[in-house]
Amino acid sequence: MINGIDQGVLAVSNILYQPWFVPLILIAGGIYLTFRCGFMQIGMFKEACKVITEKPHEGGVSSFGALMVSTASRVGTGNIIGVATAIICGGPGAIFWMWITAFFGGASAFVESTLAQIFKKKDDDGTSKGGPAFYMRDALGQRWLGVIFSILIIFTYMVGYNMLAAYNFQSTFKTYDFYNESSTPVIIGVILAILFGAVVLGGAKRLIKVTEVLVPVMGIMYVLVSLIVLAINISNLGHMFGMIFASAFDFKAIFGGFAGSCIMYGVKRGLYSNEAGMGSAPNAAARADVSHPAKQGMVQMLSVFIDTLLICTATAFMCMSTMTDASAYNLESGPEAASYVQDSLASVFGGFGPTFIVIAMAFFAFTTLIGNYSYCEGCYEFIINREATKKELIVMRIIASLLIFVGAVATAGLVCDIADMMQGLMVVTNVPSILILSGVALKCLDDYRRQKAQGLNPVFKASSIQLKQKTDHWN
User: Fold this and answer.
1) pLDDT for residue 375
2) Domain boundaries, given as residue ranges, for the chain
3) 74-87: burial string, b at 16+ Cβ within 10 Å, e else
4) CA-to-CA distance for 58 and 341, rounded, in angstroms?
5) pLDDT in tens, 177-199
6) CATH architecture classification, 17-53+62-455
7) CA 357 to the chain's CA centroid
8) CB burial string 132-147: b at 16+ within 10 A, e below
9) Nearest to 80, CA basis, from 360, 331, 345
């Protein structure tokens, strides 16, 4: 039965990741929005860094807090296992196409998160909620589409991504002699599920507080180690960059087998890592208390760069600068991908290398599990069109904890294929929506730039862009 499910999931994924489907929608959409936004990824980068430090009103969620929740989801096991998988299966050139996906995806991230801010709703506790489901309902007038998207988010994050994160974490222990195929995944799965349950049962505010602390710590630690590895292997950097660009532009190999090419793995694993255009981060962005929607749009653009151009690149450079032979690892994910990263660091640090990856994966996996789940409760409430009862939320959190255990003991192929399929379905639902609504976000950006040019701290009013729909926050 499991094999039958996996074959069905794989069949859908194979359709989604044809060059004319998800890759075209994702990259073409990102390029289109980049030009319409005037290459804001470059021009507004410094401004985005300033916005992060702004403080919210009393009791509100800070821009930084919302950034850390979305970054907790983005920066996760995919930054280690996903990058290693891309290099093993797609070649070094996959890293270049991950960079391209991230750069143009920054514009998509800005538009979707700005829209989430504009159409966010006031919650009963004084905070805000929102996301793609809300702008699909309130701006497009298609609640049914918002319901479908909410279902996709729950299945992608609570099922696909969290199961995959749990599996990826336990796979890093395979390098140790004590690892037992039957018992070790069970033990790790139980521990992860209990720790996760203890946090999520504390509610959304606890999720944000935990991620605000753990995400910066793990990110800085990981980048510092990567810089040490690069310094030790500085003589190999020229050859490393040569491999990346030679592979990235080997079009004969790319179009000879697109499904296994560096472009496909760069797009697929880049999307798994930075999530730009998927519509996940806007759910966190809508919670931020800011004076202008464009501010949080810029912050979420920055989150894409933190994820791919910083953390993913750190993994890629750590592996490739050591000249560890990626072709010796021939499985798409799981233990082989984890071993590639661990062996690369072992060549520099000895026994500490694999241990550091286990520690990093522990941080990455735990914050990923928390960040992923934070999107799901709001989507559930959107589906049922009312506030969830305390009993319903407890049941949902228990189910989420159990799924983490299931992911730890599942097979690599199934959890990876489910994640790929669900993220592809999110893209084909969300990107067309933000392209249709992009004019609203662009007017918002123009309003922000106009106020900044006047020396003001931008404050948004819906009337300033002639917005037809009523909003809870900007009238």
Assistant:
1) 83
2) 17-53+62-455
3) bbbbbbbbbbbbbb
4) 44
5) 888 888 999 999 999 898 888 88
6) Up-down Bundle (1.20)
7) 20
8) bbbbbbbbeeeeebbb
9) 360
**Interval 59-113: pLDDT, tens:** 556 666 666 655 655 566 667 777 888 888 778 888 888 888 889 889 999 999 9
47-61, 95-109, 379-393 — which is least confidently predicted? Answer: 47-61
Burial 179-189 (b: 16+ CB within 10 A, else e): beeeebbeebb
The pLDDT value given to residue 259: 53
Beta carbons within 8 Å of 38's beta carbon, 6+ residues apart:
none
CB burial class (10 A; 0-12, 13-18, 19+) of residue 392? middle
Amino acid occupying residue 283? N
- The encoded tokens of residue 345 equal 């660091």
At 128, give phi and psi (nearest 5°): -120, 160
CA distance 433 to 410: 34
pLDDT in tens, 363-378: 777 777 887 887 888 8
